[in-house]
Amino acid sequence: MLMTGLIFPFASNWIWGGGWLSNIGFIDYAGSAGVHLLGGSAGLIGTILLGPRYGFFKQNADLDKFLKKT
Length: 70
Hints:
This protein is mainly alpha-helical. 60% of the residues lie in helices and 0% in strands.
């Protein structure tokens, strides 16, 4: 809700609403640049905040429990 209600309208306005990106000549031909830019940025930030899986990078880790298919 936070992403779609507060963040996405501002970011999409930069591209489609005559914002600063469109003023410097950015053209979104397919119409999906704003969606993918915002989704990728949110995914990167989430990955950085969560960090690596616990115990995955240990030297003597039991890899079977990480690679096990459920």
